[in-house]
Amino acid sequence: MLRWSVIFLVVALIAALFGFTGIAAGAASIAKILFFVFLVLFAIALIGGVLLVKKK
Q1: What is the reported pTM?
Q2: Distances (CA, A) of 5 to 2, 23, 42
Q3: Which of 10, 22, 26, 56 is buried most, with the most CB atoms less than 10 Å from its CB?
Q4: Domain limits of the chain?
């Protein structure tokens, strides 16, 4: 998921460079959403892993 976030960020930067502001804004917002979803899933996995290790 982090890979997709970086891909959309690169697409947004390239689109902004060529002047496609609508596409750049859309790709940047998708990249931001994917990045925050990645952070939430990473935090859940990290907390779950810590709790699983404490149980053993």
Answers
A1: 0.79
A2: 5, 15, 14
A3: 26
A4: 2-55
